[in-house]
Amino acid sequence: MPLVTSTEMFRKAYDGGYAIGAFNVNNMEIVQAITEACREEKAPVILQVSKGARAYANHTYLVKLVEAAVLECPEIPVVLHLDHGPDFETCKSCIDGGFTSVMIDASSKPFAENIEITKRVVEYAHDHGVVVEAELGTLAGIEDEVVVAEGHASYTRPEEVEEFVAKTGCDSLAIAIGTSHGAYKFKPGTKPQLRFDVLEEVSRRLPGFPIVLHGSSSVPQNYVEMINTYGGAMPGAIGVPEEQLRRAAELSVCKINIDSDLRLAMTGTIREFMATHPDKFDPREYLKPARANIKEMVRHKLIHVLGCAGKA
What we know:
Blueprint: H1 7-16, E1 20-24, H2 28-41, E2 45-50, H3 51-57, H4 59-72, E3 78-85, H5 88-96, E4 101-104, H6 111-127, E5 131-136, E6 141-143, E7 146-148, H7 158-168, E8 172-175, H8 196-205, E9 211-213, H9 221-229, H10 242-250, E10 253-258, H11 260-276, H12 283-306
Parallel strand pairs: 1-2, 1-10, 2-3, 3-4, 4-5, 5-8, 8-9, 9-10
Antiparallel strand pairs: 6-7
Helix pairs in contact: 2-4, 2-12, 3-4, 5-6, 7-8, 9-11, 11-12
């Protein structure tokens, strides 16, 4: 099965009350772990690449890794998606370079400028058979080169979504309802709570339209503890409760982005291995268990959070 767009995935997810996992990839082990878990659980998947990942691993290497995964896992539909495309030029490069989906993130711009930039990307993408995700509202936190201070975050304004979608022609919309990028999503001692009232009002205004949640890692405390035990320093790392993500997936959210959880699993596993095997130096020996732990984490997400296991 060749790379696909997310159009059919999202239609089935919306009707079925589940979400597709959009997992960020940076190297071979992460690609393998995600796709092997999806193959075994018969789940569709979105493999997404950020601007930072392209700078780190090179566009061509990442595309070829994903193409190799498609060959190894022909039973599952796979989308190759640009995460947080900062401008038209980056989106165009990915469209021309084999991606089947791109996100243009002009959410930091004034409303009219966001529409103008997004519409330009949509027109070019649709001419090339590629779908487009856009964003309204701004998430706090840090992810690669996306940095938004907490005081500058803003919830999506439901009264703007109909005009935005109509004027841009985007295929899905990322909204801000209280998630945030990175591993420090909420202050210690607070009760994490997403704004389901905003999500429900957006859904009412855009019936049948796929909604996206960014910054949706749950920050598993076992890996935070593992990192801290073996030399790391991540006090107060807190994520989005999984039961809230499951509820969002049962509504209109068709795509849930997960990145930090993969990084935590990999880093925690490698830290533990290095500390308990000081004589080892072969990268394959510590990357193998790291890959295995990412795979099990993805499997858990597919079944218990996203609800998309068995939907391929």
